[in-house]
Amino acid sequence: MLLASTDTNWLCEKFNYAGSGWRETFVSFGTCSIPEPLESLEALGLVPADLLTNIEKEEKIVSDIPATSAAAVYATPGFGVANLPYGSYSIGEEAGAENTRLGLRLGETVLSAEGLGHLAGLPADLIGLLHAPNLDQLLTADRPTWDRIRTDFINFLSSADSADAVASVAHSIDAVTMNLPFTVADYVDFYASEHHASNVGAIFRPDQDPLLPNWKHLPVGYNGRAGSVYVTGTDVLRPKGLRPESGGAPSFGPSRRLDIEAEMGFVAGHGAPHGEIPLSEAEDHIFGVMLLNDWSARDIQAYEYVPLGPFLGKSFATSISAWVTPLTAFDAARVSTPTREKQLADYLDDSHLAPGGLEISVEVLVGTEVVATTPYSAMYYSPAQMLTHMTVNGAPLRPGDLFGSGTISGPERGQRGSFLELSWGGKEPLNLRDGSEMSFLEDGQTIGLRATAQTTRGTIVSLGEVWGTILPAT
C-alpha cells in the first residue's frame, strides 16, 4: 500500500518499510510503502476511517504513473512533476543568446522548454512562447495559457516511455550555468509579516508602539532597484554609506550591520497597463513564486529611512533563486491568512475569497548550519493583496514585475527571518555550533535560504536555494 497523505507520514516512520523500489520511484510524491492492507490498518486503529478515502485516492494517483515515465525516472524529492519550475540556463560557462534557453527542472535534470513543447505536442503558437532564453515571452501570456502548457507537460512527463523521449532534450543540472530567470521590469518589496514588523519596530523604536497605525490597514511597501536583482550564487559586496554614530554626526564607511531578509518573491505576468487589478483577479497576474533574499545594511537603513523609507540600505543587492515555480503548483498548499484585527478596505477584503496564504517553510543557513526556520503561513497579507494594493492607484503592471513579501518571521525566536531579529539588534548574539557568536554578517561568510512546501496531496514542492558570499567593501 502507498500512502501520500501528510496526515499519515508518521506511519512511514512507524513501519520503516520501503518495498520493491517504490520509495525510489515515487519519493518526490512524498510516498512510502506499508506492509498492511487498508482494512488491517483501520482495524488496528492506525488509520482513522475518515482518512481512508483520501488515502485510496492518493494511492491511485501515485500508482498510475508508469515506471517508464520521465516523472518516475527523473524525479527527486521536491523536484517532481508536482513542481516543474522554470529557469534560464546556458550550456557551458558563458551565457549568450546562442546557448541560453528557457528550461524546466525535473529532479537533477534541466529540460529544454521548447524541446519539451515539441515532445508534448504543443501547437506552434505556444512553442513560440517557449523559444526564448528566459521567461520573458511566457510572462506576456495569460493564466489559461500558462496552465495549458503546465498541464500538457505534466501529462506527457507522466506517460509511459516518456523517459526515453525526454533524454533528447535533457541536460544534467551540473553541466549548465543558471541565469536570472526573467528580466526584472520593476521591483517592489513589501513588509507583510506582523511578527517581523513588530520586532523591527521594537528594536528601532523602543519607546513607541511597534506597529505604526497604518500597518493593519494596508500592505506597507517601497520601490526597490530592478537593476540590482541578482541570481543565486552572485557574491555580495559589502555596501558603504552614512552610518549613525553616538557622538551625533554620521560617519561614512562600510556597513557594520549587514543583514539578510528571508522572503518569497512573486513575478507578475499578463500585464495591466492601467493597473487597478481587483483582488479577485490578482492571481491571474501572478505567474510564479521564488525564494528572495533582500540583503540589508541595517546601520545605513536606520540613519536614512525617516521620512521616506529605505534607499541605500537596501538597493545594493537582492538575490533570487534560479527557479520560478508556477503559482498553480501551490494550489494544494493554501492556508488562510491570520485573523484580521482591523476591517480592511473593500479593495483588500479577502474574507469572501478562497484562502490566499501559502504553507511554505523557509530555512536560513550560515554555511551549512540552519539557524532559523520560518513559516510563510504566518504572513498577514497574501500575495494577491500585495499585487492589488500596488496597482490600486492606476500604476501599471508589466510582465516581469517582481515583488517581495518582506521578511518572513514567526512568533518564536527560531522563526525570525533576519539577523537583526535573531540577535535582537546585536544585544543577543547567536551561538553557532562551532562555538562562535554572530550578530550580523561578516566578510567571507556564505549565507543561504532554502524552502519547501508540503501540500495536502502529500507532495513536496522545493523552491530551491539562494546563496550569497559576502565580499569586503571596495
Topology:
Layout: E1 2-3, H1 9-15, H2 22-26, E2 32-33, H3 38-43, H4 52-63, H5 70-74, E3 86-91, E4 100-106, E5 109-112, H6 113-119, H7 124-130, H8 136-139, H9 143-157, H10 162-166, E6 170-172, E7 176-179, E8 187-190, H11 194-204, E9 221-223, E10 229-231, E11 236-237, E12 240-243, E13 251-254, E14 258-259, E15 262-268, E16 286-294, E17 296-297, H12 298-304, E18 318-320, E19 325-326, E20 334-335, E21 357-358, E22 360-366, E23 369-375, H13 383-391, E24 402-404, H14 419-422, E25 430-431, E26 437-438, E27 446-454, E28 460-471
Parallel strand pairs: 8-24, 10-18, 11-28
Antiparallel strand pairs: 1-2, 3-4, 3-7, 4-5, 5-6, 8-9, 12-13, 14-17, 15-16, 15-24, 16-18, 16-19, 20-21, 22-23, 22-27, 25-26, 27-28
